[in-house]
């Protein structure tokens, strides 16, 4: 494959990102960034990185409070000149903006870059997609309407100068087109190779991992638990991992089936997850981006039960992922996994899915195809 990549060389590229997304900190932004980096390199792009720290000066913070914007400039004024200088130094023909928070930079960069230099957005998810589910279907305020409208208009204005957008899901690719993006490609998720867990399931134990103050995540978990406690035996427990701790303790106080474990490091989490009859991933709205945790669990090769929203952005050629379309059906599916023979069969399907997800090299070819202008969108063929 190395020879193939060399033949596809797209030349130098500059990846602009906030430092935290480029760090080794555990989190969805970091995982998605690392995946983008691997696949861009597989496309034959020689990447240089430009870290743009947040502007945390007191005067800037006060201004943002007084004049709130949906996509405020999170960088110092010198950032634009620094990016332009770096792009010229490495002769970059591609400038990648990592995360939609940096999309406003395109408006300032485009007039200062050579005409042949393309600005490409590496989207981790649109803010408007995340904001809409937080607005109640009834009783919403004029302020909420205004905030949603401002987000959409800002996103449309940015897309007019961005040359190409990569998204994590086909749904967001369609929304990007609706916003006016010139060219869009949805990139399927990859599953990194790691040793499967030594699975020793406990029939009385299911597991959940998530950020408990993320509204779509918390709402999905609560809906699942309400249905689960009506169906499950009193001895069956859902072991919840994640933070913040106040949210986890609140869940444990409200639901008898919850055993809250707090945040765990990687080693402790893998040890704990190896005892779960199944990983439960309840999500009932299409939140922005994708669920990076699903790729980790697929690599673990343990049973998973989820929804179409939970599996958004993933494609595979073999295997069946156990999915439900309501809290009640997901709760029944989770209870079924406490039967060892059912869980073993589900685990075999998960292994087939993990083996047949697109590879980094395949995604690299999709990127190369898209950036050479050979088509608006590509897909991995079976």
CATH superfamily of the largest domain: Glycogen Phosphorylase B
**Helix content class:** 40-55%
Query: For the CA atoms, what is the radius of gyration?
Result: 22 Å
Biggest sheet strand line-up = 2-1-3-4-5-6
- What characteristic shape results from the CA principal axes? globular
Provide the CATH architecture of the largest domain: 3-Layer(aba) Sandwich
The largest sheet is: 6 strands, parallel
Describe this structure in words.
By secondary structure, the protein is of the alpha/beta class. It has two domains: 2-189 and 359-371, Glycogen Phosphorylase B (Rossmann fold, 3-Layer(aba) Sandwich); 205-356, Rossmann fold, CATH 3.40.50. The chain is built from 16 helices and twelve strands. It has helices at 2-7, 19-22, 28-42, 58-66, 78-89, 105-109, 127-131, 142-159, 170-179, 215-231, 245-254, 266-273, 292-300, 327-336, 340-356, 360-371; strands spanning 11-17, 45-51, 94-98, 118-122, 164-167, 184-186, 205-209, 237-241, 258-262, 279-281, 304-307, 323-324. The strands form three sheets. A six-stranded parallel sheet has the order 2-1-3-4-5-6, sandwiched between helices. Helix 10 links the parallel strand 7 (205-209) and strand 8. Helix 3 packs across helix 16 (360-371) and helix 10 crosses helix 14 (327-336). The longest helix is centred in the middle third of the chain and has 18 residues, at 142-159. It is globular, with a radius of gyration of 22 Å. The model is unreliable at 1-8 and 374-382 (pLDDT under 50).
């Amino acid at each position: 494959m190395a020879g193939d990549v060399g033949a596809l060389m797209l030349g130098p590229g500059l990846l602009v990102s906030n430092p935290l997304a480029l760090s080794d900190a555990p989190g969805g932004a970091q995982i998605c960034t690392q995946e983008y980096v691997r696949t861009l390199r597989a496309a034959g792009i020689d990447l240089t990185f430009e870290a743009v720290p947040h502007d945390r000066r007191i005067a800037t913070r006060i201004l943002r409070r007084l004049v709130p914007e949906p996509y405020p400039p999170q960088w110092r004024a010198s950032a634009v000149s620094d990016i332009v200088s770096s792009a010229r130094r490495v002769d970059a023909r591609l400038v990648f903006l990592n995360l939609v928070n940096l999309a406003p930079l395109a408006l300032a960069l485009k007039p200062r870059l050579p005409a042949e230099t393309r600005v490409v957005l590496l989207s981790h998810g649109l803010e408007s997609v995340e904001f809409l589910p937080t607005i109640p279907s009834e009783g919403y305020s004029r302020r909420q309407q205004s905030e949603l409208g401002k987000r959409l208009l800002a996103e449309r204005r940015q897309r007019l100068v961005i040359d190409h957008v990569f998204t994590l899901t086909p749904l967001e690719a369609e929304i990007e087109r609706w916003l006016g993006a010139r060219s869009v490609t949805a990139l399927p998720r990859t599953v990194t190779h790691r040793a499967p867990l030594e699975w020793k399931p406990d029939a009385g134990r299911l597991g959940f991992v998530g950020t408990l103050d993320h509204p779509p995540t918390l709402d999905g978990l609560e809906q699942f638990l309400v249905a689960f406690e009506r169906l499950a035996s009193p001895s069956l427990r859902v072991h919840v991992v994640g933070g913040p701790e106040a949210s986890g303790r609140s869940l444990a106080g409200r639901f008898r089936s919850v055993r809250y474990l707090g945040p765990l490091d990687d080693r402790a989490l893998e040890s704990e997850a190896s005892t779960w009859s199944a990983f439960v991933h309840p999500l009932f709205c299409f939140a922005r981006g994708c669920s990076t945790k699903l790729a980790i669990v697929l690599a673990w090769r343990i049973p998973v039960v989820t929804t179409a929203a939970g599996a958004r952005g993933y494609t595979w050629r073999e295997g069946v992922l156990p999915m439900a379309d309501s809290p009640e059906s997901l709760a029944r599916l989770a209870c079924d996994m406490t039967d060892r023979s059912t869980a073993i069969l589900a685990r075999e399907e998960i292994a087939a899915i993990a083996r047949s997800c697109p590879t980094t090299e395949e995604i690299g070819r999709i990127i190369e195809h898209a950036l050479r202008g050979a088509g608006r969108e590509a897909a991995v063929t079976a």
